[in-house]
Amino acid sequence: MKRIIALLLAVMLVFAFTACKTNDTPPVENNNEQEQNNNEQENQPDNTTPDEPVETDGVQGVSDTTILVGNTAATTGAFAAVGVPFNAGLEAAFLEFNNAGGFGGKNIELKHYDDGFDAAQGMTYTKTLVEDDKVFALVGHFGTNTVAATMDYVKQTGIPTAYIVTGVSSLYGEGLQGKEACYFPVQPIYNGEGRMLLARAMADSANGVGLGGKNIGVLATTDDAGSGMLAGIKRQAEEANVQLTVQEVDASATDYTSAVSFLMAAGCDVVIAAMNQAPLAVAISSMAGVEYNVPVITSYVNASATTLGDLVTKGSITENRKVYSTAWLDTSTDAGMNDYLAFADAMVAWEAANGIDSTDATKTYVLNSYAMAGYVAGKTFIHGLDQLATEGKELTWENYIAAMESAPLHVPMGGEIDFAGGDRLGITALALNTISLEPDEATGVYALQVVSPIMSLDEVWANVK
After folding, report:
1. pLDDT tens string 254-279
2. What is the pLDDT of residues 133-179, one digit of tens each?
3. Contacts (Cβ under 8 Å, ≥6 apart) of 264
4. Ordered structural domains, the chain, with CATH
């Protein structure tokens, strides 16, 4: 049974935690209309809000019994398949915390608005949460559209913002101070992930930590994903005398033969594909077309068993042209599986409290990757509360932000992330996966296989010779 669960998770987790972008259409993983209706808001806020953020005293949203937090996750439209289970997982984490006694008897309560994945609505509702509802924090700040429109405002107010559901490059920061340091991104940020991509590309292959590359080629799209990863790759290259051969390509192009031929002629023995799924398929097919047979490593956003399995079927991915990807969640270890089982218990408890039959596969979220993301978001916010409780300090914005920086966060089913010193890198403790070259006998699908478990950037880089 444990193997079946692990295998199902390997399939499900590939859809999780990618940066939500305007043109994405997420897969519908279940049809839980009851939970969607639970997240609909009866009262829509006034769209007229001040252009400038209001001043706060940093203790709003806290009463003798409640800590009020909020988000604007999309729970209708195309992204309801992400937002609805995400908020379910978030509330499951809060219910688990509240049932254990909360923060000195104070329970976390979520205030949610549905912005429909619209940037203008996201901005309006974010201001409403801060200025009218007076939430203590934003938790699970959702989607590239809303995040891009609101992060300047968030930093101006200084409101704690735990877990951001995107990995856009603008979130990356080193040594942030003051209100600039009020947010805590967990998902890999393109720039931070780029650093790990180079480390894994170069680390010793004998123990499976890396691909052992000496002459590294980089194929990077000129969009935010490719540019961010390329910036991170170049940043990590500063840590050693690394010679990179870089080719930048248009993400919408349908052929990269010229670019991959250039890397092949340069003798690059590992290629980093700094791009998302559609251009990756073009890149691997172009490499196959010129018989460029070297390993490729790419972002976690491309860790789709379906997408990569199709490339295996087409003969683009082969034994001599394997594709590897990073991953920031891993249930293949005992620790990872134990974290998953804790999530599943919390999810079942939340479903029971909301009249949802967890034995009905069409309704339960226990294998839903977006619900897992929401659970991680909830645990991220709770980390700061736990640190404050340990330190015996009052719950204020200033104290909360300091508490988040005071100790590394253990990410459920993942590694650790350290916000100390104002670093906002996103998680850089990542595993290394590859796609199987044969379909699994039990499921008939190609599965992602763990090559190396989650390791920190420093741990991987120590294996670079």
Report:
1. 999 999 999 999 999 999 999 998 99
2. 999 999 999 988 899 999 999 999 999 999 999 888 899 999 999 99
3. 290, 292
4. 2-188+332-422 (3.40.50.2300), 193-327+431-461 (3.40.50.2300)
